Automatic annotation (TrEMBL):
<dbReference type="Pfam" id="PF02458">
    <property type="entry name" value="Transferase"/>
</dbReference>
<dbReference type="InterPro" id="IPR023213">
    <property type="entry name" value="CAT-like_dom_sf"/>
</dbReference>
<dbReference type="InterPro" id="IPR050317">
    <property type="entry name" value="Plant_Fungal_Acyltransferase"/>
</dbReference>
<comment type="similarity">
    <text>Belongs to the plant acyltransferase family.</text>
</comment>
<dbReference type="GO" id="GO:0016747">
    <property type="term" value="F:acyltransferase activity, transferring groups other than amino-acyl groups"/>
</dbReference>
<protein>
    <submittedName>
        <fullName>Uncharacterized protein</fullName>
    </submittedName>
</protein>
Amino acid sequence: MPTILTMQSREAIKMVTDSYVRSAIDYFEVTRARPSSASTLLISDWSRLPFHTTDFGWGEPFISRPVALPEKEVILFLSLGGERKSITVLLGLPVSAVESFQAVLQM
């Protein structure tokens, strides 16, 4: 059974239509403003990006992922390996939330 957070995430994803993205791009091009990420958690699914096919001349990598998160409070979903049978989740949490998160994992 999906959790409330899962359902809210799915609903938010459905709201991001092509016209919504185009409108946002137009707005930021006109205003030159950078969107504020204050009080915002960014969730991005990179699990379908082909990091496993990166080749710098010495063959496919054993593992390949971003060196750092693009923003402070970001969650990235990455596939692991060429077969993509597992997902690695990278969490960018504020320091104030780390202890609470660890406590939840210990439950």
